[in-house]
Design a protein that fits this description.
The protein is α+β, with helices and mostly antiparallel strands. The protein contains three helices and four strands; from the N terminus they run αββααββ. The chain has a four-stranded antiparallel sheet with strand order 1-2-4-3, covered by helices on one side. It is globular, with a radius of gyration of 14 Å.
């Protein structure tokens, strides 16, 4: 299997940091990489009591913020969204249960 590109590794590490941010009361972060032809599906999940991201985090991940209004906490997800855009994709975000969030991206191989 081909390794992840340098940018894909940056996105992976940033997704892990975002997942950790969702766990204010502690919990578990899990990472899954799945070979998907010419890309790798990166999935990061955070599970714990009331795992959640703030609205500003979610808006920043979607790129729905004015760069001039970014605060220190919202800059991490915004930067990650820009990395994702650099290879033509966006960050998938879902909340399957009240105590779990899932982040994902389809990243090109090196």
């Amino acid at each position: 299997d081909a390794p992840l590109s340098k940018t894909s590794v940056k996105v992976l590490l940033n997704l892990i940091l975002i997942a950790i941010e969702a766990l204010a009361r502690g919990g578990t972060v899990s990472v899954r990489l799945k070979n998907d032809g010419d890309a790798t599906q990166i999935s990061v999940a955070a599970a714990g009591d009331r795992a959640r991201l703030t609205e500003s985090y979610i808006a920043s991940m979607a790129g729905d913020v004015d760069e001039d209004s970014l605060d220190a906490r919202a800059s991490q997800p915004y930067y990650t969204s820009k990395l994702a855009e650099s290879f033509g994709t966006t960050i998938d975000y879902s909340v399957p249960t009240n105590d779990r969030i899932e982040l994902g991206i389809r990243a090109p191989k090196a």
